[in-house]
Design a protein that fits this description.
- The protein is an alpha/beta fold and 236 residues long.
- It contains eleven helices and six strands.
- A four-stranded parallel beta sheet has the order 1-6-5-2. It has a two-stranded antiparallel sheet with strand order 3-4.
- Strand 5, helix 11 and strand 6 form a beta-alpha-beta unit.
- Helix 5 runs parallel beside helix 8.
- It is globular.
- The protein starts with a helix and ends in a 5-residue tail after the last strand.
- The relative contact order is 0.17.
Length: 236
């Protein structure tokens, strides 16, 4: 009865799923949305050249976090799907991505031996308006998957910055330089974890990941790993 009243919909195109047992529609199933090797060992972006370990962006601008990884390529239909989660409250779509992470990335994430998971925080104004932090939904699912605690207050977003997508690569870096701050009291309360896995929905230039990493390392965190649902092809 419930499935009749609320038929399941494809998390990639938001159309009703007609075939029983489907998770995504047949049309979107044919799309190549998942990141495949070779990838940059530093940020996790797809690479064409199998002979190089790092993408041109990371060679020019080495990252402060130990390693970045992702599930999907940041392009349609993933862009629309993640936007629907964030701006249209389609939080149920997140379950599809978490199931794919379990299937495709679980072992890789487990090998990091992170002792804590944190979502990239959003500013309290955005949280009040939206009602939730999409990164926290993914972080909670991944923390449960890895049987590790999730903390949401170790890093705080203290400035409500302009959306990154509206800015040039150079502006993005400056936009986030002082946007995040580590909370020493909360970090100590969490037992001062030394290997932290940071979760976000999107990685493009890496400015957000770098800013959060800086805040964490100022607290005393030794290793920071970053996992994003989708990784773009842009350069920082």
């Amino acid at each position: 009865m419930l499935s009749f009243l609320f038929p399941p919909i494809c998390p990639l195109c938001a159309k009703e799923l007609l075939d029983k047992g489907e998770h995504i529609c047949k049309k979107k199933k044919k799309k190549q949305i998942f990141i495949k090797e070779p990838t940059c060992y530093s940020c996790g972006k797809s690479m064409k050249n199998q002979e190089k370990e790092y993408c041109s962006d990371c060679r020019r601008h080495p990252k402060n976090f130990e390693r970045g990884m992702g599930l999907c390529i940041y392009q349609k239909p993933v862009t629309d799907s993640l936007a629907a989660i964030k701006y249209k409250n389609e939080r149920k779509f997140a379950q599809y991505y978490l199931e794919e992470i379990r299937k495709r990335k679980y072992r890789e994430l487990l090998r990091l031996k992170a002792d804590a998971v944190i979502p990239v925080p959003i500013h309290k104004k955005k949280r009040r308006k939206r009602g939730f932090n999409q990164a926290e939904i993914f972080a909670k699912g991944i923390a449960e998957m890895l049987d590790q605690p999730m903390y949401t207050k170790i890093v705080e977003r203290i400035h409500d910055t302009k959306p990154q997508k509206q800015l040039s690569p150079g502006e993005r870096k400056n936009n986030l330089k002082k946007a995040f701050r580590g909370n020493l009291k909360e970090y100590q309360k969490a037992g001062t974890p030394k290997r932290i896995l940071v979760i976000d929905d999107i990685y493009t230039t890496g400015s957000t990941a770098e800013a959060v990493t800086t805040a964490l390392k100022q607290l005393g965190v030794q290793e920071v790993y970053v996992f994003c649902i989708a990784i773009g092809k842009g350069f920082s």
